[in-house]
Design goal:
binds adenosine-5'-diphosphate, alpha+beta, 60s Ribosomal Protein L30, Chain: A, globular, Phosphoribosyl-aminoimidazole Synthetase, Chain A, domain 2, four-stranded mixed sheet, binds magnesium ion
Amino acid sequence: MPQALSEFDLIKQYFVRQRPGRATLGIGDDCALLTPTAGKQIAISSDMLVEDRHFFAGADARMLGHKSLAVNLSDLAAMGARPVAFTLALALPQADRHWLAGFAEGLFALADEHGCELIGGDTTKGPLNICITVFGELAPGQALRRSAARAGDDIWISGALGDARLALAGYRMEQNLPPADLATAAARMHTPTPRVALGCALAEAGIVHAAIDISDGLVGDLGHILKASHVGATLDVDALPAGPVLARQDSALRRRYTAAGGDDYELCFTAPAASRDAIAALAISCGTPVTRVGRIDTEAGLRLVDAAGLPLDLQLTSFDHFSG
Ligand code: ADP
Ligand code: MG
């Protein structure tokens, strides 16, 4: 039997890396020390993943490592901030070496892709709970705030929506999906791609007004922009890009899951029509497709329309932990 891991052995073995990092002082002291780049602001965000709430008990550790950082990087992307560092607060039911190795592998693969350094955290015994705080940098005045949408703006979406929600329906047996389709859709649910390059490029180019990442479903998340910006919107539901598996389902399901799926981690942003060409060019250079799906109006409220511009009543609800 291998010896039981102590808390400090666990941190050292799985989370301390022997390589120079961006932080002035990394893991090991009471605090980490970060020296901000001169003239930059620091963007900070936390996101927690709780077993049985955000993922199934027994979920693959490698995927959890990826997703717990991905959802945080998605918030930086939605603000237009470049990832710098993160902390990891972990409650674990036991120190399982196999689980820890998988988790660290998924976590650091994504962290390295974005040059984001683990600089500290906390480790305790308890029901599985993963909380990450990310730190990013951006120039003052460049942040893509929810309150910045203006009437006349186009509404844009990155990537494609709805496959993560479709996978959930597949797991719950609400939808009957062939195993290969379920696997493709589930990959979107378990290993979302944070749109960091696109979010940062849009913010740095100064061609976008408001942005948000779509975690709880487009209609609900766009609603946050509308409220903060004191505007309304018209959304062409049939223009919403569906994920490859959802794209093959009937139009009622496609409309429902693209408009209010959840767990997409795509960006929704608004920009003046004058930015169209520049946005299309940036999207190509970032390798992330973007689609124009509606416009911001002075009239309050969100109007859902079909491809012909006729009103749709989809009776959608957005995800809410305390009323869902
Ligand atoms: P303290 O007693 O001051 O809370 P700890 O003993 O919890 O500090 O942690 C020791 C060091 O290890 C600290 O630098 C802390 O940031 C780091 N650390 C603890 N848990 C983790 C983790 N899960 N990932 C990365 N660093 C961690
Ligand atoms: Mg501690």
